[in-house]
Design goal:
Proton glutamate symport protein, mainly alpha, 15 helices
Amino acid sequence: MKDFLAHVFPASVVDAMAKNEILQIVVFSLFAGLAIASLGERAGALLTGIEQLAAVMLKVTNYVMVFAPFAVFAAIAAAVTTEGLELLVTYARFVGGFYASLAILWVVIVAAGALVIGPRRVGGLFGMIRQPALLAFSTASSESAYPRTLEELERFGVSKKIASFVLPLGYSFNLDGSMMYCTFASLFIAQVYGVHLSLAQRGFMLLLFLLTSKGIAGVPRASLVVIAATLPYFKIPEAGLLLVLGVDHFLDMGRSATNVIGNSVAAAAVARFEGELRPSSQLAPELSA
């Protein structure tokens, strides 16, 4: 596989892939994307090949995730056998701390929304996106809630052109819950292995996740790949990812719902700034109440 990649990509990129150095890969991908876009129709065959390769890799990922629960069960069983039932208490604290942090983030999102569109209207917004958020929470996928979220935003008064632009953009650049999950999981693994991270290293980790997590909403469990690729930068053993796999689904539910909430408030705020948010007096009586 490495020999094949060597004929397609520069040697430095192939070496970065082999060493799991995701930052170099992202930078190369940005330049490659700009170059392909500048070629227009001449890059059609290359784009078709890349799309087919991406489809194959996503299918492989799905196969891996089918068998992942067996590996996770074995890993957790071995850890509990070695460390005792106290490990389950550690997991409970980890999950509880994550959801407590999400609650703080929700308060910040609500406060920001109240400042932009008003306290009363932000309350109505949260009431209308309750079902899409619950759908994202139950399915652990923010994309599954996209159609319903778009529909509810239009009913709320956000113009269709604003909602249909901001939501897809937010799924790539405004993944609040995913960012919270990646940093939380990485710090948890670092603490388990006794790896101390300075404040500067934590800040760099946040910036790294901001860059490398773009577009992960459309790929199942893509956050795990991003975490695995980021850990080596901070000398954290990649094997620690198995510690997170056991509770990944429970955390994924919270981050997916948070992504829906954050993007909904962002869409309403952009509509307010652009004058594309209909006043409550123009909505149906049951919506303006």
